[in-house]
Amino acid sequence: MPRFPIIDSHLHLWDPQRLTYPWLFPPLDRPFLPADFQAASAGIDIEALVFLECDAAIDQAFAEAQAVLAWAQEEPRIAAMVCNAALERGDAVRADLERLAGIEKVRGVRRIYQDQPDPAWCLRPDFVAGVRALADYGLTFDLCLKHPQLQATIGLADACPNVPMVLDHIAKPGIAAGLMQPWADQMRDLARRENVVCKLSGVATEAGADWTPETLRPYMDVALEAFGPSRIMFGGDWPVSTLRLTYPAWVALVDDLIRDLSETEQRQIYAETARAFYRL
After folding, report:
1. Where along the chain do its domains lie?
2. What are phi and psi of 120, to 5 degrees?
3. Strands 232-234 and 6-11, sheet pairing
4. Which among 150, 276, 279, 163 has a CA at the least distance from the CA of 223?
5. 210: how many CB neighbours lie within 10 A of its CB?
6. CA-CA distance, 253 to 247, in Å (whole number)?
7. Closest C-alpha among 224, 222, 210 to residue 176
8. Beta strands 196-200 and 106-110: pairing type?
9. Is the peptide bond before 229 cis (omega within 30 degrees of 0)?
């Protein structure tokens, strides 16, 4: 395990009794609250946490932000949050972005497009305009997609060079199907965009029920090689990650992957990239 405190750049909390999450399915269709995370992560020295929006109903984006502020009273390590916003509205979303930017702890926006049937959906002009607008409010953008959308995402990064972006879950490669290309080449291509960094998160979730560490390692290696330690951040993706492994098991797996790196490089992945990106 890490010999120093870490920053988890990707924590989810939700309460279906408080907000509506249309996507929830068993066994995730129950509350996951600060006390649950504290129990699940016991034994891991965590310095700070970044909350990631949980795809609640879009009209509840501000209610979710207020819920996070309340949860932060129970879990003071929540240092930042990334909220939802309908960026596909283009310039019409600016009022929402201004309101979000005025909320304590808000550092960025995520608008999930992984389930869009058009792999180039993220290049629609209104969506591009909405993403570009983030720069005017000092907000970052979390990219949540699946590997068939990665080529278009490279185009989005090119279209929005002033917006700091972070790739969630290494673009959800087709691990269960054993697919490496064109994902690997596209990861290296995306990494050439200086405004993009990458989260080492959510990898086991894409691997199917019979995964092993050896199954995941080639994909994690590609991400690490492409972006380098200075542009990689650790993300737990709890509690979605519990579909495949426990929180300590994921930390141990990442720790094994980067064990040959210097302590400075390990600290970069486990804390410093997230600290700089989310301005913690």
Report:
1. 6-277
2. -105, 20
3. unpaired
4. 150
5. 7
6. 10
7. 210
8. unpaired
9. no
User: Three-state SS across the chain?
Assistant: CCCCCEEEEEECCECCCCCCCCCCCCCCCCCECHHHHHHHCCCCCEEEEEEECCCCCHHHHHHHHHHHHHHHHHCCCEEEEEECCCHHHHHHHHHHHHHHHCCCCEEEEECCCCCCCCCCHHHCHHHHHHHHHHHHHCCEEEECCCHHHHHHHHHHHHHCCCCCEEEHHHHCCCCCCCCCCCHHHHHHHHCCCCCEEEEECCCHHHCCCCCCHHHHHHHHHHHHHHHCHHHEEECCCECHHHHCCCHHHHHHHHHHHCCCCCHHHHHHHHHHHHHHHCCC
**How do 106-110 and 232-234 pair as beta strands?**
unpaired
Instruction: Tell me the C-alpha distance between 258 and 23, whole Å.
Output: 33
Tens-place pLDDT, residues 183-197: 999 999 999 999 999
Closest CA to 96 of 129, 55, 130, 146: 130
pLDDT digits (tens, 9 = 90+) for 86-136: 999 999 999 999 999 999 999 999 999 999 999 999 999 999 999 999 999
- Please give the Cα distance from 168 to 240 (Å, whole number): 13
For the record, the structure tokens of 277 come out as: 């990106």
The amino acid occupying position 188 is R
> Domain 6-277: which topology?
TIM Barrel (3.20.20)
The verdict on pTM exceeding 0.85 is: yes
Tell me how far apart the alpha carbons of residues 280 and 278 are, in angstroms, rounded to a whole number. Answer: 6
Count of all residues that appear for the chain in the document: 280
